[in-house]
Amino acid sequence: MSGKAGLVVLISGRGSNLQSILDACADGSLAAEVRAVISNRPGVYGLERARAAGVPALELDHRDFADRASFEAALAERIDRYAPDLVILAGFMRILETGFCQHYRGRMLNIHPSLLPKFRGTHTHERAIAAGETEHGASIHFVTPELDGGPVFAQAVVPVLAGDDADTLAARVLEQEHRLYPQAIDWCARGRVRLDGDGVLFDGEPLQQPRRLTP
């Protein structure tokens, strides 16, 4: 990709990672433009963030569809109207089926609040504390049909501190997510990162371990 990559961002909630992406596009640190934001939940605050930035904000309530396949067909049709280079999942709380994932293979990214492959799924902060982890964080990965199982290429790491609970740890991780996601998207937008089979190339070389950002 060259110049500014086009993004469509999918959300389900307040959109704090969306805001970090919008801000990075605005200040030029992310070589991309957000062409549309789509939420599967109507009325969420993330849509207001999009409108405030002058970005089309679309609602597509999954509850209006008979099944997952029909929702995803309608979602793909709306995404493809904007011909994005990358589809960005930013707190999009839907499990996506194989066909949808394959349609955007190598072009769809997700952020997950753990150091994958640890703690796939939900309640990651509680589980990290319960497991006695000394470090925790967030991961960026290409989306594949396996839940939170696509190739990881970027992570941010935070310490788990004595006395942490799920809320304090989540807040520390979220702060780093806001640094990590724009950086990871920028790498993809500039063509530095791309999916290669089941692995990732970084500057044309196989990536052996995810690139890590530290606080």
Automatic annotation (TrEMBL):
Catalytic activity field: N(1)-(5-phospho-beta-D-ribosyl)glycinamide + (6R)-10-formyltetrahydrofolate = N(2)-formyl-N(1)-(5-phospho-beta-D-ribosyl)glycinamide + (6S)-5,6,7,8-tetrahydrofolate + H(+)
Alphabetically ordered keywords of this record: Purine biosynthesis, Transferase
EC number(s) given by UniProt: 2.1.2.2
Formyl transferase N-terminal domain span: 7-185
GO MF annotation terms: phosphoribosylglycinamide formyltransferase activity
Native species: Plasticicumulans acidivorans
Site positions (Raises pKa of active site His): D148
HAMAP family cross-referenced by the UniProt entry: PurN
Protein name as catalogued: Phosphoribosylglycinamide formyltransferase
GO BP: 'de novo' IMP biosynthetic process
Function comment: Catalyzes the transfer of a formyl group from 10-formyltetrahydrofolate to 5-phospho-ribosyl-glycinamide (GAR), producing 5-phospho-ribosyl-N-formylglycinamide (FGAR) and tetrahydrofolate.
Cross-referenced InterPro entries: Formyl_transf_N (IPR002376), Formyl_transf_N_sf (IPR036477), GART (IPR004607)
GO cellular component, one term: cytosol
Keyword flag Kinase: no
Family named by the database record: Belongs to the GART family.
Annotated metabolic or biological route of this protein: Purine metabolism; IMP biosynthesis via de novo pathway; N(2)-formyl-N(1)-(5-phospho-D-ribosyl)glycinamide from N(1)-(5-phospho-D-ribosyl)glycinamide (10-formyl THF route): step 1/1
UniProt binding sites for (6R)-10-formyltetrahydrofolate: R68, M93, R94, I95, L96, N110
